[in-house]
Amino acid sequence: MFPSSMAVRSKSMIRIVGAREHNLKNLSVNVPRGKFVVITGVSGSGKSTLAFDIIFSEGQRRFLDSMNAYARQFVEPLERPDIDRIEGLPPTVSIEQRNSQGGGKSTVGTVTEIHQFLRLLFARLGTPYCLDCDLPTSGQTPDAITRSLKRATRDRGALRLLAPVIRNRKGFHSDIATWAQQHGYLRLRADGQWYASDEPFRLSRYKEHDVEVEIGQITSSRQATAACQSVVEETLRVGKGLLLALDEQGNGTMHGTRQACQGCGYSMPPLDPKLFSYHSARGWCETCRGFGELFHIPDVDRGARADAIEESWFQWQEGKRERCPDCDGARLNPMARSVRLNLDGFPNSLTGPRGHDFKNHPPTIDTFSAMTVREALELFEATRLKGREKEIARDILPEIRERLFFLQEVGLDYLQLGRSVTTLSGGENQRIRLAAQLGSTLSGVLYVLDEPTIGLHARDNVHLLRTLKRLQQRGNSLIVVEHDEDTMREADHVIDLGPGAGIHGGRIIATGTLNQLCRNKASLTGQALRQKRTFPLSGCRRPVEGLELGADLRKGKKR
Ligand SMILES: [Zn+2]
Ligand SMILES: [Zn+2]
After folding, report:
1. Model ipTM over 0.90
2. Which structural domains are found in the chain, ordered by start?
Protein backbone atom coordinates (compact mmCIF):
# COMPACT_ATOMS: atom_id res chain seq x y z
CA MET A 1 0.00 0.00 0.00
CA PHE A 2 2.87 2.40 0.78
CA PRO A 3 5.31 3.48 -1.88
CA SER A 4 8.46 1.63 -0.86
CA SER A 5 10.60 4.71 -1.43
CA MET A 6 8.82 6.56 1.35
CA ALA A 7 10.69 5.86 4.53
CA VAL A 8 8.36 5.95 7.47
CA ARG A 9 9.91 7.40 10.55
CA SER A 10 7.48 7.58 13.40
CA LYS A 11 8.70 11.04 14.42
CA SER A 12 8.09 12.65 11.07
CA MET A 13 4.96 10.79 10.00
CA ILE A 14 1.58 9.83 11.30
CA ARG A 15 1.14 6.37 9.86
CA ILE A 16 -2.42 5.14 9.43
CA VAL A 17 -2.92 1.47 8.55
CA GLY A 18 -6.16 -0.30 7.67
CA ALA A 19 -8.84 2.31 8.37
CA ARG A 20 -12.35 1.00 7.80
CA GLU A 21 -14.52 3.51 9.67
CA HIS A 22 -17.70 4.48 7.74
CA ASN A 23 -16.95 4.28 4.02
CA LEU A 24 -13.15 4.06 4.28
CA LYS A 25 -11.92 1.10 2.23
CA ASN A 26 -9.22 -0.42 4.45
CA LEU A 27 -7.31 2.75 3.78
CA SER A 28 -3.65 3.29 4.67
CA VAL A 29 -1.84 6.58 4.38
CA ASN A 30 1.11 8.52 5.76
CA VAL A 31 0.50 12.06 6.97
CA PRO A 32 3.63 14.19 7.42
CA ARG A 33 4.02 15.81 10.84
CA GLY A 34 4.85 19.45 11.40
CA LYS A 35 3.30 20.25 8.03
CA PHE A 36 0.22 21.93 6.67
CA VAL A 37 -1.81 19.05 5.27
CA VAL A 38 -5.09 19.36 3.37
CA ILE A 39 -7.46 16.42 3.04
CA THR A 40 -9.72 17.00 0.07
CA GLY A 41 -12.15 15.12 -2.15
CA VAL A 42 -15.80 15.25 -3.19
CA SER A 43 -18.49 15.64 -0.53
CA GLY A 44 -19.07 12.29 1.10
CA SER A 45 -15.73 10.85 -0.04
CA GLY A 46 -14.70 10.19 3.56
CA LYS A 47 -12.38 13.13 4.17
CA SER A 48 -14.07 14.16 7.43
CA THR A 49 -14.16 10.53 8.54
CA LEU A 50 -10.40 10.28 8.06
CA ALA A 51 -9.66 13.60 9.75
CA PHE A 52 -12.12 13.50 12.64
CA ASP A 53 -13.37 9.95 13.20
CA ILE A 54 -9.95 8.36 12.76
CA ILE A 55 -7.16 10.82 13.46
CA PHE A 56 -8.80 13.17 15.93
CA SER A 57 -10.81 10.62 17.87
CA GLU A 58 -7.85 8.27 18.21
CA GLY A 59 -5.78 11.23 19.44
CA GLN A 60 -8.47 12.00 22.01
CA ARG A 61 -8.75 8.39 23.08
CA ARG A 62 -5.03 8.15 23.69
CA PHE A 63 -5.07 11.39 25.62
CA LEU A 64 -7.80 10.06 27.92
CA ASP A 65 -5.95 6.79 28.33
CA SER A 66 -2.88 8.68 29.45
CA MET A 67 -4.80 10.40 32.23
CA ASN A 68 -4.62 8.95 35.70
CA ALA A 69 -7.29 6.55 36.90
CA TYR A 70 -8.88 9.17 39.13
CA ALA A 71 -9.40 11.64 36.29
CA ARG A 72 -10.55 8.86 33.95
CA GLN A 73 -13.49 7.88 36.12
CA PHE A 74 -15.22 11.14 35.17
CA VAL A 75 -15.16 10.56 31.43
CA GLU A 76 -16.84 7.99 29.25
CA PRO A 77 -14.30 5.70 27.63
CA LEU A 78 -14.14 6.43 23.92
CA GLU A 79 -14.70 3.69 21.42
CA ARG A 80 -11.72 2.75 19.35
CA PRO A 81 -12.17 3.63 15.67
CA ASP A 82 -12.18 0.74 13.22
CA ILE A 83 -8.54 0.70 12.26
CA ASP A 84 -5.57 -1.68 12.39
CA ARG A 85 -3.15 0.85 13.82
CA ILE A 86 -1.99 4.46 13.95
CA GLU A 87 1.59 5.38 14.76
CA GLY A 88 3.26 8.70 15.46
CA LEU A 89 0.12 10.52 16.55
CA PRO A 90 0.83 13.71 18.55
CA PRO A 91 -1.64 15.23 21.06
CA THR A 92 -4.63 16.27 19.02
CA VAL A 93 -6.90 19.30 19.18
CA SER A 94 -9.90 19.75 16.94
CA ILE A 95 -11.24 23.16 16.02
CA GLU A 96 -14.66 22.46 14.64
CA GLN A 97 -17.36 24.69 13.27
CA ARG A 98 -19.96 23.58 15.72
CA ASN A 99 -19.84 24.79 19.25
CA SER A 100 -18.68 21.68 21.03
CA GLN A 101 -18.75 22.67 24.68
CA GLY A 102 -21.33 24.41 26.80
CA GLY A 103 -21.62 27.98 25.72
CA GLY A 104 -24.06 29.55 28.17
CA LYS A 105 -21.34 31.57 29.86
CA SER A 106 -18.87 31.64 26.98
CA THR A 107 -18.22 34.88 25.18
CA VAL A 108 -15.73 36.01 22.57
CA GLY A 109 -13.72 37.36 25.50
CA THR A 110 -13.74 34.20 27.60
CA VAL A 111 -13.04 31.75 24.77
CA THR A 112 -10.00 33.76 23.68
CA GLU A 113 -8.98 34.33 27.34
CA ILE A 114 -9.05 38.10 26.82
CA HIS A 115 -11.65 38.33 29.56
CA GLN A 116 -9.44 36.37 31.96
CA PHE A 117 -6.59 38.84 31.42
CA LEU A 118 -8.97 41.80 31.78
CA ARG A 119 -10.08 40.30 35.09
CA LEU A 120 -6.47 40.31 36.27
CA LEU A 121 -6.01 43.87 35.08
CA PHE A 122 -9.14 45.03 36.91
CA ALA A 123 -8.22 43.15 40.09
CA ARG A 124 -4.76 44.69 40.19
CA LEU A 125 -5.34 48.18 38.84
CA GLY A 126 -9.08 48.75 39.15
CA THR A 127 -10.63 51.35 41.44
CA PRO A 128 -13.93 50.41 43.07
CA TYR A 129 -16.48 53.21 42.95
CA CYS A 130 -19.05 53.65 45.71
CA LEU A 131 -22.39 52.26 44.54
CA ASP A 132 -24.29 55.07 46.30
CA CYS A 133 -22.08 58.11 45.73
CA ASP A 134 -20.40 57.06 42.45
CA LEU A 135 -17.12 58.30 43.95
CA PRO A 136 -13.82 56.47 43.67
CA THR A 137 -12.83 54.62 46.79
CA SER A 138 -9.27 54.85 47.93
CA GLY A 139 -6.96 53.77 50.67
CA GLN A 140 -3.86 55.53 52.01
CA THR A 141 -1.00 54.73 54.33
CA PRO A 142 -1.26 56.19 57.90
CA ASP A 143 1.78 58.26 57.02
CA ALA A 144 0.08 59.82 53.99
CA ILE A 145 -3.10 60.48 55.99
CA THR A 146 -1.08 62.27 58.69
CA ARG A 147 0.67 64.48 56.15
CA SER A 148 -2.54 65.42 54.35
CA LEU A 149 -4.38 66.20 57.62
CA LYS A 150 -1.57 68.41 58.87
CA ARG A 151 -1.64 70.26 55.59
CA ALA A 152 -5.44 70.54 55.77
CA THR A 153 -5.35 72.40 59.10
CA ARG A 154 -4.07 75.48 57.24
CA ASP A 155 -7.45 75.84 55.53
CA ARG A 156 -9.78 74.01 57.85
CA GLY A 157 -8.34 74.88 61.26
CA ALA A 158 -8.02 72.35 64.07
CA LEU A 159 -9.34 68.88 63.24
CA ARG A 160 -10.92 66.38 65.61
CA LEU A 161 -10.08 62.81 64.71
CA LEU A 162 -12.97 60.41 65.11
CA ALA A 163 -13.00 56.64 64.74
CA PRO A 164 -16.19 55.40 63.06
CA VAL A 165 -17.26 52.32 65.01
CA ILE A 166 -20.84 51.84 63.80
CA ARG A 167 -21.94 52.43 60.21
CA ASN A 168 -25.62 52.16 59.30
CA ARG A 169 -26.53 49.65 61.96
CA LYS A 170 -29.69 49.35 64.07
CA GLY A 171 -29.55 48.91 67.85
CA PHE A 172 -29.18 50.67 71.25
CA HIS A 173 -25.36 50.60 70.97
CA SER A 174 -25.06 51.35 74.72
CA ASP A 175 -21.97 49.16 75.00
CA ILE A 176 -19.96 51.60 72.90
CA ALA A 177 -20.16 54.37 75.51
CA THR A 178 -19.13 51.89 78.18
CA TRP A 179 -16.20 50.74 76.07
CA ALA A 180 -15.12 54.36 75.32
CA GLN A 181 -15.24 55.31 78.97
CA GLN A 182 -13.21 52.27 80.01
CA HIS A 183 -10.55 53.16 77.43
CA GLY A 184 -10.32 56.79 78.46
CA TYR A 185 -12.11 58.35 75.49
CA LEU A 186 -14.28 61.20 76.71
CA ARG A 187 -16.64 61.92 73.85
CA LEU A 188 -18.58 60.15 71.17
CA ARG A 189 -20.84 61.25 68.39
CA ALA A 190 -23.99 59.46 67.24
CA ASP A 191 -25.80 60.57 64.09
CA GLY A 192 -24.07 63.98 64.36
CA GLN A 193 -24.94 64.52 68.07
CA TRP A 194 -22.21 64.72 70.71
CA TYR A 195 -22.36 62.66 73.92
CA ALA A 196 -20.00 62.40 76.89
CA SER A 197 -18.98 58.81 77.38
CA ASP A 198 -19.99 58.84 81.05
CA GLU A 199 -23.57 59.98 80.43
CA PRO A 200 -26.37 57.47 79.73
CA PHE A 201 -26.20 56.40 76.09
CA ARG A 202 -29.08 54.52 74.49
CA LEU A 203 -30.06 55.01 70.83
CA SER A 204 -33.39 54.03 69.35
CA ARG A 205 -33.30 50.35 68.66
CA TYR A 206 -34.99 50.16 65.25
CA LYS A 207 -33.20 53.03 63.54
CA GLU A 208 -29.92 52.82 61.68
CA HIS A 209 -27.09 54.70 63.33
CA ASP A 210 -23.61 56.02 62.72
CA VAL A 211 -21.44 56.21 65.83
CA GLU A 212 -17.90 57.61 66.15
CA VAL A 213 -15.51 57.85 69.09
CA GLU A 214 -13.34 60.95 69.41
CA ILE A 215 -9.71 59.90 69.74
CA GLY A 216 -7.71 63.15 69.55
CA GLN A 217 -6.91 66.26 67.53
CA ILE A 218 -4.50 67.79 65.09
CA THR A 219 -4.47 71.48 65.92
CA SER A 220 -2.06 72.98 63.41
CA SER A 221 0.46 72.19 60.72
CA ARG A 222 3.23 73.04 63.18
CA GLN A 223 2.27 70.26 65.58
CA ALA A 224 4.97 67.59 65.95
CA THR A 225 4.63 64.95 63.27
CA ALA A 226 5.29 62.04 65.63
CA ALA A 227 2.42 63.11 67.88
CA CYS A 228 0.08 63.55 64.91
CA GLN A 229 1.09 60.20 63.48
CA SER A 230 0.43 58.47 66.77
CA VAL A 231 -3.10 59.87 67.13
CA VAL A 232 -3.87 59.06 63.46
CA GLU A 233 -2.72 55.48 63.97
CA GLU A 234 -4.75 55.12 67.13
CA THR A 235 -7.85 56.45 65.37
CA LEU A 236 -7.34 54.06 62.46
CA ARG A 237 -6.93 51.17 64.88
CA VAL A 238 -10.19 51.90 66.69
CA GLY A 239 -11.96 52.74 63.41
CA LYS A 240 -10.68 49.52 61.82
CA GLY A 241 -8.93 51.41 59.05
CA LEU A 242 -11.24 54.43 58.85
CA LEU A 243 -10.82 57.96 60.19
CA LEU A 244 -13.24 60.89 60.16
CA ALA A 245 -11.62 64.34 60.37
CA LEU A 246 -14.07 66.94 61.64
CA ASP A 247 -13.45 70.70 61.61
CA GLU A 248 -14.94 73.37 63.92
CA GLN A 249 -17.84 73.92 61.52
CA GLY A 250 -18.76 70.24 61.73
CA ASN A 251 -17.63 69.38 58.19
CA GLY A 252 -16.06 65.96 57.99
CA THR A 253 -13.79 64.14 55.58
CA MET A 254 -13.33 60.39 55.61
CA HIS A 255 -9.85 58.91 55.34
CA GLY A 256 -8.79 55.33 55.45
CA THR A 257 -6.26 52.65 54.87
CA ARG A 258 -8.97 50.40 53.44
CA GLN A 259 -10.53 50.89 50.01
CA ALA A 260 -13.37 53.06 51.20
CA CYS A 261 -15.67 55.68 49.74
CA GLN A 262 -14.45 59.20 50.49
CA GLY A 263 -18.05 60.34 50.59
CA CYS A 264 -19.77 57.89 52.91
CA GLY A 265 -16.94 55.71 54.18
CA TYR A 266 -18.44 52.60 52.64
CA SER A 267 -15.64 50.09 52.51
CA MET A 268 -15.03 47.71 49.62
CA PRO A 269 -13.48 44.28 50.03
CA PRO A 270 -10.10 43.90 48.31
CA LEU A 271 -10.40 43.24 44.58
CA ASP A 272 -9.97 39.72 43.33
CA PRO A 273 -10.12 38.34 39.74
CA LYS A 274 -13.07 36.16 40.82
CA LEU A 275 -15.13 39.31 41.29
CA PHE A 276 -15.22 39.64 37.49
CA SER A 277 -15.96 36.01 36.69
CA TYR A 278 -19.29 34.79 35.29
CA HIS A 279 -18.54 31.44 36.93
CA SER A 280 -18.03 32.68 40.48
CA ALA A 281 -20.68 33.52 43.06
CA ARG A 282 -18.41 36.46 43.96
CA GLY A 283 -18.91 37.99 40.56
CA TRP A 284 -22.06 36.80 38.89
CA CYS A 285 -25.35 38.65 38.83
CA GLU A 286 -27.46 36.86 41.42
CA THR A 287 -30.54 36.95 39.26
CA CYS A 288 -29.10 35.18 36.21
CA ARG A 289 -26.03 33.57 37.81
CA GLY A 290 -23.73 34.76 35.04
CA PHE A 291 -25.81 33.70 32.03
CA GLY A 292 -27.02 37.21 31.26
CA GLU A 293 -30.36 35.63 30.40
CA LEU A 294 -33.20 34.16 32.41
CA PHE A 295 -34.62 30.76 31.58
CA HIS A 296 -36.78 28.15 33.21
CA ILE A 297 -34.98 25.73 35.47
CA PRO A 298 -36.75 23.45 37.95
CA ASP A 299 -36.44 24.57 41.54
CA VAL A 300 -34.53 21.62 42.95
CA ASP A 301 -31.34 21.23 44.92
CA ARG A 302 -28.72 21.32 42.19
CA GLY A 303 -25.88 20.23 44.44
CA ALA A 304 -22.29 20.06 43.32
CA ARG A 305 -23.16 19.62 39.66
CA ALA A 306 -25.11 22.89 39.53
CA ASP A 307 -22.96 24.24 36.69
CA ALA A 308 -23.61 21.29 34.38
CA ILE A 309 -27.33 21.21 35.20
CA GLU A 310 -27.73 24.93 34.55
CA GLU A 311 -25.77 24.65 31.33
CA SER A 312 -28.07 21.87 30.08
CA TRP A 313 -31.20 23.82 30.88
CA PHE A 314 -29.70 26.88 29.24
CA GLN A 315 -29.40 24.90 26.02
CA TRP A 316 -32.82 23.23 26.27
CA GLN A 317 -34.47 26.61 26.75
CA GLU A 318 -33.08 27.97 23.51
CA GLY A 319 -35.53 30.49 22.08
CA LYS A 320 -37.33 30.84 25.42
CA ARG A 321 -34.63 32.77 27.24
CA GLU A 322 -34.99 36.43 28.15
CA ARG A 323 -32.41 39.11 28.78
CA CYS A 324 -31.74 39.45 32.51
CA PRO A 325 -33.38 42.69 33.71
CA ASP A 326 -31.02 43.15 36.67
CA CYS A 327 -27.69 43.16 34.86
CA ASP A 328 -29.11 43.88 31.41
CA GLY A 329 -27.15 40.96 30.01
CA ALA A 330 -23.84 42.03 31.57
CA ARG A 331 -23.74 38.83 33.69
CA LEU A 332 -22.02 40.49 36.67
CA ASN A 333 -23.22 41.93 39.98
CA PRO A 334 -23.30 45.67 40.73
CA MET A 335 -20.12 45.55 42.78
CA ALA A 336 -18.11 44.02 39.93
CA ARG A 337 -19.60 46.52 37.52
CA SER A 338 -18.70 49.46 39.77
CA VAL A 339 -14.96 48.89 39.45
CA ARG A 340 -13.31 51.22 36.98
CA LEU A 341 -9.96 51.06 35.28
CA ASN A 342 -8.60 54.53 35.89
CA LEU A 343 -5.24 54.40 34.13
CA ASP A 344 -2.97 57.39 33.60
CA GLY A 345 -1.68 55.64 30.51
CA PHE A 346 -4.99 55.72 28.63
CA PRO A 347 -4.92 57.93 25.54
CA ASN A 348 -6.43 61.40 25.85
CA SER A 349 -8.14 61.70 22.54
CA LEU A 350 -9.44 58.23 21.81
CA THR A 351 -13.14 57.60 22.07
CA GLY A 352 -14.54 54.13 22.48
CA PRO A 353 -17.96 52.64 21.79
CA ARG A 354 -20.72 55.26 21.68
CA GLY A 355 -18.16 58.04 22.07
CA HIS A 356 -16.78 56.70 25.35
CA ASP A 357 -14.14 59.03 26.82
CA PHE A 358 -11.68 56.77 28.66
CA LYS A 359 -9.88 59.58 30.45
CA ASN A 360 -12.89 61.24 32.04
CA HIS A 361 -15.07 58.16 32.35
CA PRO A 362 -12.76 55.30 33.25
CA PRO A 363 -14.07 52.07 31.73
CA THR A 364 -15.73 49.31 33.74
CA ILE A 365 -15.51 45.65 32.77
CA ASP A 366 -18.89 46.23 31.05
CA THR A 367 -17.33 48.90 28.86
CA PHE A 368 -14.91 46.28 27.56
CA SER A 369 -17.67 43.74 26.95
CA ALA A 370 -19.46 46.30 24.81
CA MET A 371 -16.31 47.06 22.81
CA THR A 372 -15.54 45.41 19.52
CA VAL A 373 -12.20 43.73 18.98
CA ARG A 374 -11.19 46.67 16.78
CA GLU A 375 -12.07 49.26 19.45
CA ALA A 376 -10.29 47.35 22.20
CA LEU A 377 -7.21 46.91 20.03
CA GLU A 378 -7.17 50.64 19.24
CA LEU A 379 -7.38 51.45 22.93
CA PHE A 380 -4.63 49.09 24.04
CA GLU A 381 -2.34 50.01 21.15
CA ALA A 382 -2.62 53.67 22.18
CA THR A 383 -2.19 52.99 25.90
CA ARG A 384 1.19 54.09 27.28
CA LEU A 385 1.73 52.93 30.83
CA LYS A 386 4.36 54.33 33.15
CA GLY A 387 5.67 53.68 36.64
CA ARG A 388 3.51 51.55 38.91
CA GLU A 389 0.83 50.90 36.27
CA LYS A 390 3.46 49.69 33.84
CA GLU A 391 5.06 47.48 36.45
CA ILE A 392 1.76 45.83 37.33
CA ALA A 393 0.36 45.46 33.81
CA ARG A 394 3.62 44.44 32.18
CA ASP A 395 2.72 40.77 31.80
CA ILE A 396 -0.98 41.28 31.19
CA LEU A 397 -1.20 43.87 28.43
CA PRO A 398 0.85 42.00 25.81
CA GLU A 399 -1.38 38.93 26.29
CA ILE A 400 -4.50 41.00 25.68
CA ARG A 401 -3.03 42.83 22.69
CA GLU A 402 -1.81 39.61 21.11
CA ARG A 403 -5.18 37.90 21.38
CA LEU A 404 -7.01 40.94 20.02
CA PHE A 405 -4.54 40.99 17.17
CA PHE A 406 -5.21 37.33 16.36
CA LEU A 407 -8.95 37.96 16.30
CA GLN A 408 -8.31 40.78 13.87
CA GLU A 409 -6.05 38.50 11.84
CA VAL A 410 -8.84 35.97 11.34
CA GLY A 411 -11.22 38.73 10.27
CA LEU A 412 -13.30 38.97 13.45
CA ASP A 413 -12.51 42.53 14.50
CA TYR A 414 -16.20 43.46 14.33
CA LEU A 415 -17.21 41.11 17.18
CA GLN A 416 -17.97 42.52 20.61
CA LEU A 417 -15.90 40.97 23.38
CA GLY A 418 -19.01 40.26 25.44
CA ARG A 419 -20.84 38.59 22.56
CA SER A 420 -22.18 35.17 23.53
CA VAL A 421 -20.63 32.40 21.44
CA THR A 422 -24.08 30.82 21.14
CA THR A 423 -25.00 33.65 18.75
CA LEU A 424 -21.99 33.16 16.46
CA SER A 425 -22.00 31.38 13.13
CA GLY A 426 -20.12 28.09 12.78
CA GLY A 427 -17.28 29.78 10.95
CA GLU A 428 -16.99 32.60 13.49
CA ASN A 429 -16.97 30.05 16.28
CA GLN A 430 -14.18 28.10 14.67
CA ARG A 431 -12.10 31.18 14.07
CA ILE A 432 -12.33 32.50 17.62
CA ARG A 433 -11.19 29.07 18.79
CA LEU A 434 -8.36 29.29 16.30
CA ALA A 435 -7.42 32.71 17.64
CA ALA A 436 -7.53 31.23 21.15
CA GLN A 437 -5.06 28.53 20.08
CA LEU A 438 -2.72 31.16 18.69
CA GLY A 439 -2.67 32.67 22.13
CA SER A 440 -1.54 29.42 23.67
CA THR A 441 2.07 28.39 23.74
CA LEU A 442 1.44 24.76 22.87
CA SER A 443 3.72 23.18 20.35
CA GLY A 444 3.97 19.67 19.01
CA VAL A 445 0.18 19.56 18.77
CA LEU A 446 -1.88 18.30 15.84
CA TYR A 447 -4.74 20.65 14.96
CA VAL A 448 -7.63 19.25 12.95
CA LEU A 449 -9.97 21.74 11.26
CA ASP A 450 -12.98 21.37 9.01
CA GLU A 451 -13.43 23.83 6.15
CA PRO A 452 -12.15 26.94 7.94
CA THR A 453 -12.56 29.13 4.85
CA ILE A 454 -16.33 28.71 4.63
CA GLY A 455 -18.06 32.07 4.45
CA LEU A 456 -14.82 34.06 4.31
CA HIS A 457 -14.11 36.99 2.03
CA ALA A 458 -10.92 36.77 -0.02
CA ARG A 459 -9.13 39.25 2.24
CA ASP A 460 -10.00 37.29 5.39
CA ASN A 461 -9.04 34.07 3.68
CA VAL A 462 -5.51 35.42 3.26
CA HIS A 463 -5.45 36.25 6.97
CA LEU A 464 -6.75 32.84 7.92
CA LEU A 465 -4.10 31.06 5.88
CA ARG A 466 -1.43 33.24 7.45
CA THR A 467 -2.79 32.29 10.88
CA LEU A 468 -2.67 28.60 10.06
CA LYS A 469 0.90 28.99 8.83
CA ARG A 470 1.81 30.67 12.09
CA LEU A 471 0.40 27.78 14.11
CA GLN A 472 2.49 25.45 11.99
CA GLN A 473 5.64 27.54 12.42
CA ARG A 474 5.36 27.08 16.16
CA GLY A 475 6.10 23.41 15.67
CA ASN A 476 2.54 22.17 15.31
CA SER A 477 0.94 19.92 12.69
CA LEU A 478 -2.17 20.92 10.78
CA ILE A 479 -4.75 18.76 9.08
CA VAL A 480 -7.41 20.78 7.30
CA VAL A 481 -10.44 19.28 5.58
CA GLU A 482 -11.02 21.65 2.71
CA HIS A 483 -11.77 22.02 -0.98
CA ASP A 484 -10.88 25.67 -1.18
CA GLU A 485 -8.29 26.17 -3.88
CA ASP A 486 -6.21 28.84 -2.12
CA THR A 487 -5.90 26.65 0.94
CA MET A 488 -4.66 23.75 -1.17
CA ARG A 489 -2.12 25.99 -2.86
CA GLU A 490 -0.73 26.90 0.57
CA ALA A 491 -0.57 23.30 1.74
CA ASP A 492 2.69 21.36 2.01
CA HIS A 493 0.87 18.13 1.37
CA VAL A 494 -2.53 17.22 -0.09
CA ILE A 495 -4.43 13.97 0.38
CA ASP A 496 -7.15 13.44 -2.23
CA LEU A 497 -9.91 11.02 -1.29
CA GLY A 498 -12.47 9.56 -3.65
CA PRO A 499 -13.19 8.77 -6.27
CA GLY A 500 -16.89 9.29 -5.52
CA ALA A 501 -19.16 9.71 -2.54
CA GLY A 502 -20.45 7.18 -0.02
CA ILE A 503 -19.70 3.60 -1.05
CA HIS A 504 -17.95 4.96 -4.15
CA GLY A 505 -15.46 6.87 -2.03
CA GLY A 506 -13.20 6.00 0.86
CA ARG A 507 -10.01 5.44 -1.13
CA ILE A 508 -6.79 7.42 -1.43
CA ILE A 509 -6.68 8.75 -4.99
CA ALA A 510 -3.50 10.75 -4.71
CA THR A 511 -1.17 12.23 -2.12
CA GLY A 512 1.71 14.65 -2.38
CA THR A 513 2.40 18.28 -3.09
CA LEU A 514 -0.08 20.22 -5.17
CA ASN A 515 2.24 19.93 -8.17
CA GLN A 516 2.31 16.17 -7.83
CA LEU A 517 -1.48 16.16 -7.59
CA CYS A 518 -1.84 18.24 -10.74
CA ARG A 519 0.28 15.76 -12.67
CA ASN A 520 -1.75 12.83 -11.37
CA LYS A 521 -4.37 11.85 -13.98
CA ALA A 522 -6.35 9.89 -11.39
CA SER A 523 -6.82 12.90 -9.12
CA LEU A 524 -10.01 14.76 -9.87
CA THR A 525 -8.80 17.59 -7.67
CA GLY A 526 -5.48 17.71 -9.48
CA GLN A 527 -7.20 17.79 -12.86
CA ALA A 528 -9.59 20.52 -11.80
CA LEU A 529 -6.73 22.62 -10.48
CA ARG A 530 -4.72 22.07 -13.63
CA GLN A 531 -7.56 23.30 -15.81
CA LYS A 532 -7.75 26.38 -13.65
CA ARG A 533 -4.10 27.00 -14.35
CA THR A 534 -4.64 26.83 -18.08
CA PHE A 535 -7.65 29.13 -17.90
CA PRO A 536 -6.97 31.23 -14.86
CA LEU A 537 -10.01 32.89 -13.38
CA SER A 538 -9.40 36.52 -12.77
CA GLY A 539 -9.97 38.07 -9.40
CA CYS A 540 -12.45 35.85 -7.68
CA ARG A 541 -11.81 32.98 -5.37
CA ARG A 542 -14.01 29.95 -5.44
CA PRO A 543 -14.04 26.34 -4.40
CA VAL A 544 -12.85 23.82 -6.93
CA GLU A 545 -16.19 23.24 -8.58
CA GLY A 546 -15.05 20.29 -10.61
CA LEU A 547 -15.08 18.31 -7.41
CA GLU A 548 -18.75 18.71 -6.73
CA LEU A 549 -19.54 18.35 -10.43
CA GLY A 550 -17.53 15.16 -10.59
CA ALA A 551 -19.52 13.71 -7.76
CA ASP A 552 -22.78 14.45 -9.51
CA LEU A 553 -21.62 12.89 -12.76
CA ARG A 554 -20.61 9.74 -11.00
CA LYS A 555 -23.88 9.48 -9.18
CA GLY A 556 -25.67 10.02 -12.49
CA LYS A 557 -23.73 7.26 -14.20
CA LYS A 558 -24.64 4.76 -11.54
CA ARG A 559 -28.34 5.34 -11.86
ZN1 LIG B 1 -20.23 56.48 49.14
ZN1 LIG C 1 -28.25 39.17 35.43
Report:
1. yes
2. 13-99+424-453+465-507+535-558 (3.40.50.300), 103-136+271-298+305-362 (1.20.1580.10), 140-257 (3.30.190.20)
